């Protein structure tokens, strides 16, 4: 009798589970990086929550915390003075640096959770040759590990980045440092809207990444500080989907843990260790990312276009090879429709098949859309909720949201 009841209860639970949505499998960071920028949590409960929120890289961790991070199913970049505690313009002898990395290799060099070592954040151009020298010794000792460097945004002035131009500064990452990705940040969410400088920076990074055959990661705003906007579903989605539309291969969320200084607030975890509303927003957008990333990672960016307003350095939709127009009417929804602002990223896969990503650039308005192609064809749009294709050329986009579609 008890066995019968147990089996019946198990069958009932299985039926309930079958009808319940499940979170997607978390993509490997070697395919697409989803990183919580800043110190990695050390509490196993917080690390479990980070994994549940869809991250695959916990952030920057001390050697002592690597085991706990691995057990939580996450990866990390180790931060340690033996890797980054140098004056980059006046390095110690090579044998000192080599011994430092050899001691790190003995401790964590074979740990699969360690992707590499944090070296520097927002260095000046004059520091990059020194960082590159240390990175070369790192690769000599641990060839499979990566040295991590994140660079300044395009809004900084020439004296700050220290190169002849911002583009020359960016090129130092693939050409001097030889880092396999370009990681940068540009926080442009202020006064209720996204400033065009966010897209201008994406234009520069995308072009240099394509020219140097390097991937790029975007470190996006995921908390509020200074006069930046507080996170919302729209602000997170707009930054994520814009990065995808430009061909990005990594998203870094600044920050997961909220810093206990200045006026930082509304990171995913607050200063008392509690989940904030931002945690749920991150989990939602990361679940979408984990569904889309296996497809996105196979595509090559072929163009990016804006309509109707074009940021500095950008291209108008009239230059698109695939899309003739995107129409948004909102008929019978509001009395006076707002002007739709769209971004279209175009791609090709290894077989030459075309894809596009349509992004709603508004932070406040949802739009219905109809995509008219330059040639006859059908869009097969990928659901961000299950990764399956659905055939349609029309639909709705929430504020900041995007839609990845295969063109047939």
Strand content: 15-25%
Structural class: alpha/beta
Termini separation comes to: 57 Å
Helical amount: 25-40%
Residue ranges: pLDDT <50 for 5 or more in a row? 1-16
Based on CA atoms alone, the radius of gyration comes out at: 22 Å
Reading the helices and strands in chain order gives: HEHEHEHHEHEHHEEEHEHEHEEEEEEEEE
Question: Can you tag this structure with a few keywords?
Answer:
alpha/beta; 6-stranded antiparallel sheet; 32% helix; globular
Q: Topology of this structure?
A:
Layout: H1 2-18, E1 33-36, H2 44-52, E2 57-61, H3 66-71, E3 75-78, H4 81-84, H5 94-108, E4 114-121, H6 128-141, E5 146-151, H7 158-161, H8 166-177, E6 181-185, E7 189-190, E8 193-194, H9 197-211, E9 215-221, H10 233-245, E10 250-254, H11 277-296, E11 300-307, E12 323-327, E13 342-348, E14 354-360, E15 367-373, E16 379-382, E17 389-391, E18 394-397, E19 402-407
Parallel strand pairs: 1-10, 2-3, 3-4, 4-5, 5-6, 6-9, 9-10
Antiparallel strand pairs: 7-8, 11-13, 12-15, 13-14, 14-19, 15-18, 16-17, 16-19
Helix pairs in contact: 5-6, 6-8, 8-9, 10-11
Characterization of the model:
- With 408 residues, this protein is of the alpha/beta class.
- It contains eleven helices and 19 strands.
- The protein has helices at residues 2-18, 44-52, 66-71, 81-84, 94-108, 128-141, 158-161, 166-177, 197-211, 233-245, 277-296, and strands at 33-36, 57-61, 75-78, 114-121, 146-151, 181-185, 189-190, 193-194, 215-221, 250-254, 300-307, 323-327, 342-348, 354-360, 367-373, 379-382, 389-391, 394-397, 402-407.
- α6 (128-141) runs parallel beside α8 (166-177), α8 packs parallel to α9 and α10 runs parallel beside α11 (277-296).
- It is globular.
